[in-house]
Amino acid sequence: MRTSVSEIAVEKGVKTPPSEIVSKKRAVRSPTISREIRLVSRPHGLPVPDNFALVRVELPLPEEDQVLVRNLFMSVDPYMRGRMNDGSSYVSPFQLDQPLDGAAVGEVIESRAPGIAPGDIVTSRFGWREYFVSGAREVRVVDPHVRPLSAYLGALGMTGLTAWSGLNLVDVKAGDRVLISAAAGAVGSIAGQLSKLRGCRVIGSAGSPEKVAMLVGELGFDAAFNYKDGDLPGQLKAAAPDGIDVYFDNVGGEQLEAAISAMRLNGRIIACGAIGGYNEEAPVSGPRNLALFIGKRLTMKGFIVGDWFDRMPEFVKEMKVVIAGGGLVMKETVVQGIELAPHAFVDMLRGGNIGKMVVRLTGENPSAAHAGD
Ligand code: NDP
Fold this sequence. Notes:
By secondary structure, the protein is of the alpha/beta class. It has helices at 24-28, 79-83, 158-169, 186-197, 209-217, 232-239, 253-262, 292-296, 312-324, 341-349, 366-369, and strands at 6-12, 33-39, 52-58, 66-75, 98-99, 104-111, 121-124, 131-135, 139-142, 177-180, 201-206, 223-226, 244-249, 263-271, 299-302, 332-336, 356-360.
């Protein structure tokens, strides 16, 4: 685990752009001051700024077999909302008054670990902070030439692996008619494009006309609709008159119910997420048409991306070929600065993102500036 830090200032209620910025000089040479976001109270419904605090801490020097890393990008993800509750789940809750964590990509500033050198690009679980000191085994050195480097949080990271795993889970193949919800988001936008590459007909649902236009115009979806326009069965019928074989469910609720009604015989449902209910205080109602599973011989399979981590090398190899061939548009929404990370997180939960929502933690563009290009 991370070496202990000395806390030097706490700023509660993170809501405005910074009044202070860590100097670039310090960032390049032996930084000892970092800023991190902590959870200071548990949200009820949608998180608010007072649930978070921006804290300045002094980091120790790396010890034997440790590295000091400056984070370049960090991820905000829907599953983090569940971790802000105090209940048990497949992943442990965040602790109050402790820094949040999550996926990040950073640059090694100092290393006392064999095989890791300053300048190396690493991924880690130490997001929500500008710098960290950790054991060498807690970071993964990655190819520094990938552009943008934030792709390690998106198409080449957990997001992409989620999309890929979900499609493999139910063996999505050429000819399948695939419906994807939250299609303009991180997982959905990749899942849709990978389905197209497999030879499927792909329909997406999303929450704004801009997103719908992007899905068809930029990402090559065959059809898309705005679920906020209502009449889900009617919109689905218009987009997929013959029904759907596969539903990649990211949201649950009414969209799941409409999808079940539109499923064809032997249809498969990928239970990936249920973001429509993540901010609800009470459990949300289930679909009213589950009896259709019987006559239609439907299958619904849930999965957790962590169960697929051992297939990461296979996934990355495949994705790099797709990306190199120009077969994938990597959409992302970038928010600048650690102090706006809580805002980025909440905005993502509200649909403010197109593609992967990431927070850039350095002033310059790290993808352009990294040495060795
Ligand atoms: P996204 O980038 O898709 O961001 C979340 C999106 O959800 C928003 O942009 C918004 O888009 C949509 N949304 C929010 N509220 C609602 C609502 N009430 N109804 C419908 N859509 C809503 O996030 P991710 O791609 O990271 O995650 C997508 C899903 O995949 C989530 O459910 C997540 O939990 C799940 N997931 C599951 C994993 C697993 O291991 N099973 C791993 C990673 C993610 P819009 O404007 O279209 O409403």
